[in-house]
Write a structure and sequence with these properties.
Layout (H helix, E strand, L loop, with lengths): L20 E5 L8 H11 L7 E6 L5 H9 L3 E5 L4 H11 L6 H4 L2 E7 L6
Parallel strand pairs: 1-2
Antiparallel strand pairs: 2-4, 3-4
């Protein structure tokens, strides 16, 4: 089942529905929402070891780094290798006037819940 919906992030979120895959794009800009986003993802992601979140996000200064520092307590985080198509697109973008690697160079990250006895 694919479910697409607007979601309000919250530390108090509870959900009877759990997801095997959660996909997000460009959600880390506002640092004040990092804690709420991390809590929401942890609540919504199924405990199955094969379940994961995919983030597509530019670096945006230290925003990505700060979110992943917070998330590493409960998630393992790996950067997904970009294929040839994506690398080619970034090379084309990089040659354009106004290109800014900090906001235009999209990275993809995979987050999985860390296994614990409580999961």
């Amino acid at each position: 089942m694919i479910d697409i919906k607007k979601l309000v992030w919250s530390r108090e979120i509870t959900s009877d529905v759990k997801y095997n895959i959660v996909i997000l794009s460009d959600c880390l800009f506002f640092k004040k929402f990092h804690v709420d986003l991390e809590a929401t993802l942890f609540e919504l992601l199924d405990n199955d070891p094969e379940s994961f979140c995919l983030f597509a996000n530019p670096q945006r200064g230290d925003s990505c780094k700060l979110f992943f520092e917070l998330a590493k307590e409960r998630f393992t985080i790996t950067e997904v290798e970009r294929g040839a198509f994506i690398r080619d697109q970034i090379e084309k973008l990089a040659s354009q006037p106004g290109y800014d690697a900090d906001s235009d160079d999209i990275r993809i990250y995979k987050l999985q819940k860390r296994s614990t006895e409580n999961n």
